[in-house]
Amino acid sequence: MVVVDVHTHVYPPTFVELLRSRSSVPYIRTFPETGDVARMVILPGEDDPNTPSTARGRPVGPEYWDIAHKIAFMDTHKIDVSVISLANPWLDFLPSDEAGDAAQKINDDVNDQCSKYPGRLFAFGTLPLSAPIDVIVKEIERLSKMKYMRGIIMGTSGLGQGLDDLKLDPIYAALEKHSSLIFLHPHYGLPQSVYGPRTNEYGHVLPLAMGFPLETTIAVTRMLLSGVWDRFQNLNVLIAHSGGTLPFLAGRIESCISHDAHMKKEGKLEGRRPIWDIFKKNIYLDAVIYSEVGLKAAVEASGADRLLFGTDHPFFPPLEEEATQWESVSTNYSAIKTAFAQDDKAAKDVLGGNAVRILRLHE
Ligand code: URA
Ligand code: ZN
């Protein structure tokens, strides 16, 4: 049996340098009160001046950029292969004329990191989404020829207008043409106002537990509504965090669409592919949901053959410094074990077999 982690991040040294050179979000810096420990401030709202610097962002160390730490983490948690990806906010914040070169450097760095551990590391590349379309398409083509790349990771903002933007069509077309999987991952959450004035009292809980999955759910629903999968019937998307809340809400989404008089009048209901069809043909879900309940919804929606184990390392480390086993990892392992207690083959597929097949990791 092979265990493959498809949701595991790195910030390669080139990217870390970039964050260290910045003073607005996203940035990495030390504060007088935090001594030598640098803090990484990346999420919208994390830079609130009312938040003390010791609670701003998160402490970062080599586990975020040193690939040897990734391998040590894999060994501790019995993970054979990791498909590493740059974490949020990727290159979304870069000026248009800098994004293309930055993407090339970072993708080369990541591919190179994989080459140091043959058979243990593959990667999802990063796109220069603020660059002109032809630059983005060229990077998709370049990535499709790189030995360890197995698709791309991206957020929900697209070119700045979300994933239902028709200007994304050449990008979806290029990804479909090269059979490059999109690993869709949240970053922006929801508008700060929905978290209420006391949000800072609750650390990162509201943006991470609610903001992230709902952001993902809305982004994918907008793709569906704009007919992305009607135009690109072979476009494959691996959705983070077991699809946000999509498996749970899919029935409601379908019902709202089929009862919408405006969409009917505009002819948008004719010949459209229902979400259930897309779940089974175009969507893969990771198993980063930390409970059997969520996992079962994911299996019901897309099937045990489309579900893939992940950890979200290096995020969610244990709060007790001495712990070596990460509870965030063992919770996901246990959820898989319990959900598939009666089906050993399915458990093995979710843990690694599906990833090997879908991402062609034997090649
Ligand atoms: N927090 C983030 O900012 N990104 C992740 O992937 C997980 C937690
Ligand atoms: Zn993640």
TrEMBL record:
One of its GO terms (biological process) is secondary metabolic process. Residues 4-361 form the Amidohydrolase-related domain. The keyword Cell inner membrane does not apply. GO terms for cellular component: cytosol. This is Uracil-5-carboxylate decarboxylase. PANTHER family: 2-AMINO-3-CARBOXYLMUCONATE-6-SEMIALDEHYDE DECARBOXYLASE, ISO-OROTATE DECARBOXYLASE (EUROFUNG). InterPro entries: ACMSD, Amidohydro-rel, Metal_Hydrolase. It comes from Mytilinidion resinicola.
